[in-house]
Hints:
Elements: E1 6-7, E2 17-24, E3 30-32, E4 34-35, E5 49-52, E6 58-66, E7 72-76, E8 88-93, H1 95-114, E9 119-124, E10 128-133, H2 141-153, E11 158-164, H3 165-170, E12 188-194, E13 198-201, E14 216-223, E15 229-235
Amino acid sequence: MNPITEALFNRNAYLQHCEACVLEIPPEGVVLDRTVFYPLGGGQPGDTGVLRGKHGREWAVIDTRKGEGGRILHVLAPGTEPPAPGDVVNAELDWTRRHAHMRMHTCLHLLGSVLRYGVTGGQVGADKGRLDFDTQAEIDKDRVTAEVNALIAANHPVEPRWVDEAELDRQPELVRTMSVQPPRGAGRIRLLDIAGVDLQPCGGTHVAATGEIGPVVVTKVESKGKRNKRVVVAFA
């Protein structure tokens, strides 16, 4: 079954706007037939931006969420009168924010490749991000900072690819997140491949090469339980 909303960001994370038709206006948000807006998921925030209609009409999108049946919900500011079903709009991202999320999300994959422990949680932000690791080991901030920055400087290519669910079952070691499993039922799983560095399921948006991330620094390592170390990384 095809999703209601075509997720253009799955094919090209660098698309900043698209023309789309309004399909539905449920209470949760505006459903379009296609979108460049990424919905909250995998630790990455939902996109913000604007829908532009005819005659100068604009609707601020303050969040993007997943709905039922492959719907992507564009959440409008409270009290906003939405566009009508059938209207054609131009969906435009807050690109500065999204691109920062792409850089940080890719950076967290590099962090996970340096610290090869199970991942118990994570969060992507526009200025910093974090991963929580299932370990009691001591983590040296300076060493991890140096190793992550070396991977960034090497400018490894980054690209998504797809495998069927059976192939992922044959390689369970690819799934390092301990509390969240990749979504099943569509027949295929999306992987993020950082060539020679990291390969794991991920549905988020990412930069095309690690050099685009820019320099980062591990700002904090703290224990969040007996076997849970939180590592926070920020753009330098």
